[in-house]
Amino acid sequence: MTRNWLVGVAGGVAVLGAVVVVVSRPLEGSPVAASETAAVDSQVLRGRYLVISHDCGGCHAGDANPEAPGWLAGRTDTIQDFRIGPFITRPRNLTPDNTTGLGRFSERQIFNALRYGLRPGETPDVEITGTTPGVGNFPEIPKYLAIPMPWPAWRHMPDEDLWAIAAYLKRGVKPVVNKVQDSDGPPDFWASEYTVEKIGKYPAAPYPTANER
Ligand code: HEC
Predict the structure, then answer these.
(1) Cβ density class 155-189: b for 16+ within 10 Å, e for less
(2) Which atom of ligand 1 is nearest to the CA of 165?
């Protein structure tokens, strides 16, 4: 165990070395390329900060510690399962592995999962133009992510923050192979739990509501 961990650290140092070389080349030759590299890095770093501070790892593994083994690799033990009424739901692998993780999906599909709760595996890779099922190209019969994935709260984050999370998950995390068993759920893919009456409006009702002053 300890030995593997040491190998991992040595590998990380080697990768860091490679990145420094790549970044330093455009710095010498072309200032435009250098600033593009910096822009990509700052989006990934912003996404990292948001992922750590929004407790994604509390369910998807690793808590708030990007050094933890299995960081964001999803459920590996029944202790990470949720029982929602008669159903068991399971936090999925958020690392960019191409067969078992988010490598299969685009950054837009991850954005649509966080903004609209639409399952990346069962929703087309398109810009969603409505906020209500059947309006614009919001699927008429939406297939939502299982409870308790807290997208009804995070959909209120600004676009650029959700894009930054998608960028970090796709480009800032190493792929880990971990096939998470599908969540159980009702035949309507939770649509009856995600009505405006139950989760509120998007964007939120104007301030102040009856509860506010
Ligand atoms: C309270 C637990 C919980 C937290 C916190 C949480 N998730 Fe999830 N998430 C889940 C569960 C459970 C699923 C599986 C849903 C399903 O099977 O339909 C899921 C699924 C997902 C998916 C869909 C993956 C796929 O392959 O379909 C994405 C993307 C995702 N979560 C991103 C995030 C991000 C980003 C954060 C932090 C900002 C986060 N989650 C925090 C519980 C959580």
Answers:
(1) beeeeebbbbbbbbbbebbebbebebeebebeeeb
(2) 35
Taking the centre of ligand 1 as the mean of its atom positions, its distance from the CA of residue 169, in whole angstroms, is: 12
Best residue among 51, 83, 149, 179 to mutate for probing ligand 1's pocket (most ligand atoms within 8 Å of CB) is 149
Task: Provide the whole-model pTM.
Answer: 0.85
Q: Extract the tokens encoding 165.
A: 């999370």
Chain CA centroid to CA 40, Å: 17
Expressed in angstroms and rounded, the spacing between residue 6 Cα and the centre of ligand 1 is 30
Which residues, judged by CB distance below 6 Å to any ligand atom, belong to the binding site of ligand 1? 51, 54-56, 58-60, 82, 89, 91-92, 94, 110, 113, 119-121, 145-146, 148-150, 154, 165, 183
pLDDT in tens, 147-178: 999 999 999 999 999 999 999 999 999 999 99
Q: Give the model confidence (pLDDT) of 192-208 as tens digits.
A: 999 999 999 999 999 99
